[in-house]
Amino acid sequence: HAVLHVPDATALLPFYCDILGFAVSDYGLDPVPLYFFHVNGRHHSFAIVGSGKSGFHHFMVEYENLDDMGQGYDLASQQKDGIAYTLGRHTNDHITSFYANSPSGFFVENGWGGRLIDPVTWEPHETKVGPSFWGHDRLYLPEEERRSFVDMRLKAAADGLRSPPMVDCPWLYELRGRG
Question: What CATH class has 2-175?
Answer without folding.
Answer: alpha beta
